[in-house]
Amino acid sequence: MQDSFTDFAAIFVYLGEAPLLWLTLTLGAFLAAERLYQFSNRFALLNPVLVSSMAICIVLYGTGTPYDAYFRGAQFIHFLLGPAIIVLAVPVWRHRAALWRARFAVLIALIVGGSVAGLSVIGLSVFFELDLEMAAAITPKSVTAPVAMGIAENLGGAVSLAALLAVLTGISGAVLATPLFNAFGFLDWRGRGFAVGITCHGVGTAHAFQLSSVAGSFATIGMALNALFSAVILPVLFLLIYG
After folding, report:
1. What is the pTM of this model?
2. Domain boundaries in the chain?
3. Rg of the chain on CA atoms, in Å
């Protein structure tokens, strides 16, 4: 027993001196949040990404740890985002027949969803008289974070704020989408997934895969197509109104 305690203490000391502490914290927080989510029968407000993010923020704030120090330890997870996105092509290929059959509906939903997402934010920015930098950062909130950052930068917005808003939008969508779909009786996994992919990008897509592989496949397509569509249409809409 004493040996086990000594070994555990030695591991903790090592992690405390090495950046692996934050990698361990991140993985542990997410696994615990995922277990809580499953135990609660997938209660929307206990979304694993939301809960684990809040837990990590509390730890960082409580210990006075700067984000840069945390990121140096957890950056291996950031590195894995690239391979994870590529792996999303596997379920998309498996459901390619369903995707092809719904191609016209997908195209219409993309145009309507992408345009409304952009126009609604730009309209609210004008209504509340936000300055150009703030409006440019908010406009691409429904686009996946790397593309949103590029759009915001080209429009003269704050890149860091654009990334934050994109992540918050994804988490909010993952929490609210399923209850809203259920409340309105919208049960088609194809439509649910595609809508989540357009508006909630990566986090929403991960949530869609938790519910259905069909929903996840359509969410992946929605996320990718909306990134391309928004990169073209959002700057045009923004300049027409704010020009």
Report:
1. 0.75
2. 1-80, 88-243
3. 20
